[in-house]
Amino acid sequence: MGSLPPSATAESPDVSSMDLFSLQGKNVLITGGSRGIGAAMAVALAQAGASICLAQRDVSNTATADQVRKLGRRVVVLPCDLRDMQQSKLIFDRALEAMDGRIDVLVNCGGLLQRKDSVDVMEEDWDNILDVNLKALFFICQAAGRHMIPRRQGKILNVASLNSFIGGNRVVSYAASKGAVTQVTKALSNEWAKHNIQVNAIAPGSIATDINTDLRSDPQQYAARVARCPAGRWGAPADFAGPAVFLCSAASQYITGEVLVIDGGQMAS
Q: Looking at residues 37-44, what average pLDDT do you find?
């Protein structure tokens, strides 16, 4: 078979099945990796062989970095508050400098959620959620594209939500932002596939993390979520380890523009 034209996606490598999931030698930048789903994904990617750059607001939280170090992987922690657009626009280049001039994988997991009646949402509330969940995400993706396009390779994984597809309750700004994340993911995948860059997203359902402690502490809300889920339980951050490795590795070379729903079957029901 002849060489691929410059506008084509590289074929999946002819290696063993397990080697397809290897991230040995890859550099990963992840936002929101200090806890919850982001932490689980960061550790999973390190277990697969990657070096990790964590962009996090609270650099005193070393839990994820400590886990990565215990695996014998390189880890760099950079301070970044995604609410500050200047910091968001610069974080990718700062990560490049910290990771020897190369980022192979970007994972956008940083985000905010606010529960509030729609009639009470203020402009500041709206802007806070959209700035972090959508605007910062896009400009970090943009910086990644500028780096990955000339190199003709790269993986981007965004975190959307089940609320990308269903409106939810009292989360209007969050639902709007996450719906937009799915479209940004698809739009970038359309543009960048010809540069051998895969852009995908995951959409968590009801997952037991700090972001929904209020729901889980309410017995009725907790039980209602379980009742709606065919899997019969809330999800856990560990449920994202496998999907993250899959979508950030050569195992997903011919997959782009997809949103993988991880919800125990809730949306299907």
A: 98
**What whole-number distance in Å separates Cα of residue 186 and Cα of residue 96?**
25
**Mean pLDDT, residues 157-184 taken together:** 97
**CA gap 200, 9 in Å, rounded:** 15
Q: Which of 94, 110, 174, 229 is catalytic?
A: 174
> Domain boundaries in the chain?
18-207+238-261
Domain 18-207+238-261 is found in CATH 3.90.700.10:
no
Distance (Å, whole) CA 225 – CA 215: 9
Say what the pTM is.
Answer: 0.94
Has 174 been annotated as catalytic?
A: yes
| 3-state class (DSSP) for residue 76 | strand
Q: What is each CA distance from 77 to 42, 141, 152, 261, in whole angstroms?
A: 12, 19, 27, 29
